[in-house]
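Predict structure. Chain length: 313.
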Amino acid sequence: MRARYGVPLGITAGITAVGAAGLVYSVGIEARSFRLRRVSVPVLPPGMEPLRVLQVSDIHMVRGQRKKQRWLQSLAGLRPDFVVNTGDNLSDPEAVPEVLDALGPLLELPGTYVFGSNDYYGPRLRNPARYLLEKASGRHGLNGNPPVVGAIHNPWEDLRDTFDAAGWVGLSNTRGRLKLDGVEIALTGLDDPHIKRDRYAKVAGGPEQDADLSLAIVHAPYLRSLDAFAADGYPLILAGHTHGGQVCIPFYGALVTNCDLDTDRVKGLSTHRAGGNRAYLHVSAGCGANRYTPFRFACPPEATLLTLVAREG
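Prediction complete.
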């Protein structure tokens, strides 16, 4: 007996079984297979001692995700010099206590943060195929799309207040500084471009010359933000948002980035050129996923330990 259109039932059943197995793996195994990526970036002045920076991003915490909480807590054992949180901590408006518990040991270290759209607003159920349609049309987030109506407002102020109380430096369209045993780190950050909250004019002007290092930080790596940071002369830009593509094709890579960044730079270390300058760009694949699409394939969840070392010359 054959299925409609001449496809044998055995083949149809096999395809269905493979698809089901892939879904079980992507939700139950890979989405919980947390990894630490290690990267070395030559951006420090010659002769300066290395700095170790832990970047965490896109936690998308949902109540009950105990394994993710324990893994995040364990990252404090790396003893980085400072922490950079590039946003999207929430995927559940009632998960703020879990986020703060998971980040508790890291809050004892120097740190800085920006927020992403999912810190401000709760996720919505949507067809994953829309990411492909948005890529084809060049429309992402609120950039070219109608404003969101009826969104759930997350209690992001509770995150902000706790981060600030711990001494972490908030960088929503502003500048800040970290002082680490005589080393001055100048920080410049933007609010999330994915929902048009970025205001580069408020922070324009480039690196601060009296600092040992200047870093640029943003949640979503939209090209307008990367162009502005690179043209102003920042040596390193840190971002998240992309989830590394979240669902990737083995030996091919990501299909989408959920912004206008190309898929070749969807995660990891690369470079960005603008205005005659070149900046290093590190995009974290993040360690979570939207609660309505809780899967990953060929793109395990991660945090990154960046070792900043002296550049040559």
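Summary: Residues 31 and 296 are 5 Å apart (CA to CA).
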